[in-house]
Amino acid sequence: MACSLHVAWDDGLTSYNFGPQHPLHPVRVELTMALCREFGVFDRPNVALSNGVEPAADELLGLVHDSDYIEAVKRAGKALEPDDPYCLGTSDNPVFPDMHEASALVAGASVRAASAVWNGESEHAANIAGGLHHAMPGNAWGFCVYNDAALAVAWLLEQGAKRVAYVDVDVHHGDGVQTMFYDDPRVLTVSLHESPMTLFPGTGRPTETGGPGAEGYAVNIALPAGTNDSRWLRAFEAVVPPVLREFQPEVLVTQQGVDTHALDPLANLMLSVDGQRRTYSALHRLAKETAGGRWVVLGGGGYELVQVVPRAWSHLLAEASGTQLDPAAETPQNWREFVRERTGEVPPLYMTDGREFEVTPFEAGFDPEDPVDQAIQATRRAVFPSHGMDPSL
Questions:
Q1: pLDDT tens digits, residue range 71-92?
Q2: Looking at the domain assignment, is residue 392 inside a domain?
Q3: Is residue 332 part of a domain?
Q4: Count of other CB atoms within 10 angstroms of residue 4
Q5: What family is reported (predicted)?
Q6: Is the pTM for the entire model greater than 0.90?
Q7: N or C: which end of the chain has fewer CB within 10 A?
Q8: What burial class does residue 254 get, using C-beta atoms within 10 Å of its C-beta: 0-12 exposed, 13-18 middle, 19+ buried?
Q9: The domain containing residue 345 runs over which residues?
Q10: Residues taking part in catalysis
Q11: Is residue 350 included in any domain, yes or no?
């Protein structure tokens, strides 16, 4: 099969909306889709765009969520009243009308993407509105009502997948997905994130390696605040390719949060769009090398709504389609006018941040005084032996 991409889309996905003052504003998804359309990403002959997505039914949501929690989400979305035991109505997770319906649609879109890959419709598939990786089995958490990422993985297991890898590059730890599969050796969860010492949710230490019988199947790289492109990619290359090559997943699911960017208002890493673009290419190669090309791509965090998210995710979807966008390209004039109309903000002029950098492989030498190298080594020592790999250089 030639490199092909199915994009699970429905205009209703923008109804996942906590309100105009909330950081997770759906305009970021709207601007991404508009920018991709202007660049013709969805017009390519190998790209299919869904004409509607079915919301996840209660039985499907029940693969990862408690039934009483699903009912609580339904009640909260109708009564518009908080439900404290379920973390609904907090500042992070405000109640909004038809919350269940909007959240179930996001979940359904991620399962649709997973089904397109599993059933052979497309080599790659994406739900850019997904990646709500914090939601727990019985409560909302960190802007996330239903955990569509975990649901996509659980659905693949239900279909008979024996090995699914989940790689999360959001600046925040993928705690909800890790929790749901912590004791399951069929699922390898890998999360690169800012250290829990400085950022929500306060988990994701390298010592979190999996439950009994699944030791080494939770992999956490906790990076210090201030980590830049070259150091982040050094950590990625030192850990992610080796564990994926050893695990040999049938499907690779990735959560592509772009809140690692230096402009993101909620976190403290220092990546650029150019560094993030390098990540997409690396994950694409790893999907081909380790998972037979089967790659499910989900969105995630990202709170610089105009300057970062649309450009980063347009590069991502283009990469998944097999044809990269020129980073030196100017953003289309029609899109700039749309940005001003929708947000009143000044749009970015180019698809690059103009960053150039070199990545020195970890194998070239370990610096015991460098905090990024310390983080890399802590993770390798924690998980590599469980997979029969030597953590030393």
A1: 999 999 999 999 999 999 999 9
A2: no
A3: yes
A4: 21
A5: Belongs to the histone deacetylase family.
A6: yes
A7: N
A8: buried
A9: 5-387
A10: 134
A11: yes
